[in-house]
Amino acid sequence: MRLRKELQGVKRIVVKVGSNVITKKNGNLDTRRLRKLVEDISELIDSGIEVVLVSSGAVSVGKSFLKKHLPRKGQIDLQHSASAIGQPKLINTYSRLFEENEKLCSQILLTHDDFRNRKRNLHAKQNINVLLKNNITPILNENDSISFTEIALGDNDHLAAQTAQMINADALLMITSTNGLYDKDPGYPDAKRIAEVPFGSDVLDSVNFQGKTAVGKGGMESKVHAVTKITPLGIKAIISSLDADRIILDPLTKDLGTYFAPKNAYDPEERKAWLLSMKKPNCYIEVDRGAYKALKKSKSLLPKGIIDVYGEFYKGDCVDIICDGEVFASGVCEYGNTEVEQIKGRHSDEIEDLIGFRTSIEVIHTINLILEHDIIKENKNERIS
Predict the structure, then answer these.
(1) For the chain, what is the domain count?
(2) Quick one: CA torsion of 318, 321, 325, 327, rounded to 10 degrees?
(3) Do 222 and 138 reside in the same domain of the chain?
(4) In what residue span(s) does the PUA domain sit (predicted)?
């Protein structure tokens, strides 16, 4: 499979589909279209591309069921009841279709609190990464049965954008009822598709989001707003139509929809500065000479090379790494100080036996490691400013 030129090198994609994509007018699931979606995702997986699916539809399916089986007066708090009833029906259908393609899927229900709360955010990210590593497609949805204030605010658009940011996705694809963004309501005959929105351009300033048709009202503005939150982070985005022959593959391989160009490629120096800005003061991990040499070669820190732990920190905190009393690196920890204390000096395959779980074989992964020369450079920049 050859992705369109703008997406060359993309290895992890978040795909968002709305209720109108996967349900019929009566609210029932459109199994034919769902099957096409799953077939496209399966082909991406077989091509070595990881996919996270953000799928609406639970409320629509639940409402349809309630209308058939409950009298009008019994349909209290319909929105939340509908979600609780429709979600299992939705995920069961997905599961069956993935199994038809000899693939597996999983369900993850999130609320905005899962992104606001640091520990829950890290746990969700770790869970998704483990699923993807095992070729299991995570299917995410807003947990509407317990989310009161967010319902009907286009939240799955923002959920998809937040997920793309959380898991460091390369691209986000949003499927909607129109072939991308138009300069005006696509119901007008002279409406023109906007093929690309360059990063930092004023293209969006001239777009009229208010329209005379149902297609032109709501929805698109929410999607564009969500997309513009992630393009500054280097994440590419496409908004495309549910009417494509291959709903997911066509916009990824052809000039369809609207492509939102990101800020120039990921800057590792910016990431290092960001990690150092989060560093926990007076927290250290002491390592032996073997670990010191490995880390200087940008290897990950394993528990075997750890001698001692100082200070109180949690998973996700950035701490200093010392050897022979000198700080030579910093890094983001996969475990808190309590867990590191218990696994120090031991092999990675012993972690679960020692602390009851294992989220990573590394205490600090190489991608979250900053060596001494970067720390010195950052400190100099701070003094200059």
Answers:
(1) 2
(2) -70
(3) yes
(4) 283-364
Nearest to 337 by CA among 362, 361, 308, 365: 308
Which residues belong to the annotated binding site? 16, 56, 144, 156
**Do 181 and 224 contact (CB within 8 A), yes or no?**
yes
CA distance 377 to 15: 39
Residue ranges making up the domain that contains 304: 269-384
Mark which of 260, 286, 312 sits at the end of a domain. 260
Query: What are 291-333's pLDDT values in tens digits?
Result: 999 999 989 999 999 999 999 998 888 899 999 999 999 998 9
Q: Are 143 and 110 in contact (CB under 8 A)?
A: yes
Residue bearing tokens 């939705």: 90
Distance spanning both ends of the chain, measured CA to CA = 48
CATH number at residue 337: 2.30.130.10
Neighbours of 351 (CB within 10 A): 23
Query: In a 3-state reduction of DSSP, which class is residue 42?
Result: helix
DSSP annotation of 117: S
Q: DSSP string spanning 147-181? A: --SSTTS-HHHHHHHHHHHHTT-SEEEEEESSSS-
Q: How far apart are CA 285 and CA 368, in angstroms?
A: 15
Alpha-carbon distance of 339 to 363, in angstroms, equals 10
The predicted model scores a pTM of 0.69
Residue list for the binding site for substrate: 56, 144, 156
Structure confidence by residue, pLDDT tens digits, 329-342? 999 898 999 999 99
Can you give the length of the chain in residues? 385
- Verify that 327 and 194 share a domain, yes or no: no
Does 345 lie in the same domain as 246? no
Looking from the CA of 329 toward its CB, the CA atoms found within 13 Å total: 27
